Structures are given as C-alpha cells and as structure tokens.
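During the reporting period the student researcher (J.K.) took over the structure-prediction task from the postdoctoral fellow and processed the backlog of single-chain submissions. One of the processed entries is reproduced below for the supervisory committee.
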Amino acid sequence: MTTETPDALPTGTVDAAVIGGGAAGLNGALMLARSRRSVVVIDSGTPRNAPADAVHGLLGLDGTPPAELLARGRAEVRGYGGLVVPGQVTAAAPAPPAPDGDLRFTVTLADGRTLTARRLLVATGLRDALPDVPGLAPHWGHGVVHCPYCHGWEVRDEPVGVLAVGPASVHHALLFRQLTDDLVYFTRDTSLDDDTRARFTARGIRVVDTPVAAVESDPTGITGVRLTDGTVVPRRVLAVATTLHARTEGLSALALPTAQLPADMGTHLASGPAGLTGVPGVWTAGNATDPMAQVGASAAAGALAGAHINAHLATADTEAALARATHTPSPAGA
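J.K. obtained the following structure tokens:
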C-alpha cells in the first residue's frame, strides 16, 4: 500500500473544516472540493469500523477493507484540491465574524495548531459501549457483532448468542434468527414478557435466564458463554446491541444540540434537513447524528451536507459581493 504524505494545515481562512475523516466526512469534503471550495479534513485516524475485516452492503465496494476504502476516499479528496490533516481536535468554537459579517470558527488541534474556517461539518462518528461482561470486549468486530446487515452473512449458520441489554435486543434476536437456526437469547438482567417468550419459542429461539458470568474463548475465538451456575453454553458468535454515544470531545464550545436515542440506547447530535444543526454555520453527518447509518448512508449524508454547505457559502459570497458593489464609489466622470 502506498504511504500517504500528510497535508500541512493551512494558515489562512478556509471555506470549510470537516472534523472526522470517515465516510461521511470524506464524502462531504469531496463535494466541497469538487465545488472548488477550500476544505480541510481533520482526521483522528480512529474510525468506528476499524476492527472490522470488510465493509458490507455497499454496492460496488462490498468486501472492501475499511482502511482501504478510507485511503481511496482521502486520495479522491486530495485529487480535487482538498486537504486531509491527521490530528485530534481538542476545541472547536465560534470566532469573531469577518468584517462583512460572515461566520468564522476556530479549530484547535492537540498539538496547538489552529485552523480558521467559515463553516464546519462535524462527522466525528460515535463510540460503541459494550456491556460489562468479562471476556467480551477483546472479540469486538469479529466474534462479537452488533449489526445483522454489516456482519450477518459472515456469521450465518453459526451458533449465535444474543446478550440482551434491553428492549432493542428482542428485535436484534429476530433479525439474527434469519441468519441461523441455532440462536440462544441470554436475558441477563432484562425482563422478557410471556408474549415475547412465546414468539421466541415459535421461532426456535432458546431463552436462558441464568445470569451470565463471562465469555469463554480460545485462540480460535469465542467458544461459549459461562453462566453463574458454572454451565457453559457453546457459542461461536455473540450479538450485542451496543450503547451508542456521539463523539463530541472538543466540541463543547459549539453547544451542539443532542438528543436521546429510544430505549436508552445512547445519544446523538440532533440535526435537521441536510444535517444542519441548531448552530448557524455548523452541519453534521454520519453516525454522530444517525447512529444506525451504514457506510453508504453515512457517505450519502456527508455528500448532502457538503452540497448544502457549498450553497450556503455561495449565498454568503453573493451577499458580500453585492455589498462591495453597492459601496464602491463610481469612477470620476461617470
């Protein structure tokens, strides 16, 4: 694989800064760069899907390793003049407006460098929080999965266990039942009503109410779930509905509005059409605002937000040009 050369952080004001170098951020930057906007992507290099072997459900690119897909995206952004700068954003805040009243934002990186931008696209993604079960976390992204559409085909016909975390796990179980005939539902500390139990029985889903003690494994991966009574239920795959938290570190000064996900499944950034937040000049796209979006949907949302930002800038540029024309003295003798 070709080694990438990081871009230098520009010293002047750019049209847009994109915080986050995943599918949403890169596609937003691509739309802006293709519109001849100066755009800088700040990429922390910690994408949510890094543990996964491949991206799935993305037409034409199914099976592509996540790192390869993102490398292609960075090359495409750079091909149109956009910049991709490695770094961790520690602060993003409104700055004094330009003399013509146009918005300004200051983005500060962990090493102290700063960038001034007219508009911001927040595409920071989210963080998955797994239940606190000993032995579970090391298998995240391989033997421990969360999305039947992202990983389901790859675990088809395996002995699958669903570790319940709440009401969302019932739906989870029904989706994974489509992929395997051998499914066990571990209720853990959640309740399961009689109607749901009857539905599980009808679908051949075994329910285990004994509390879970730990996940057992060997060098090949997960081997089973150990219960508090010492019983080990053999499993090769565990499905878990994670708690989802939008990554907002360093963004507190923007005061971006957040919202709770249903069933206490986490938080996300609230946004309207095209990812516009309640903060003038700031858009958001991808998993930070739409936690259930797969790579294709995140990329599409980034493209839409990028186009919207470009249109917003075009309006601002026109207003500024009109103001200059209105206040320019007429040539002598005119």
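The committee noted the following: The mean pLDDT is 94.
J.K. will present the remaining backlog at the next meeting.
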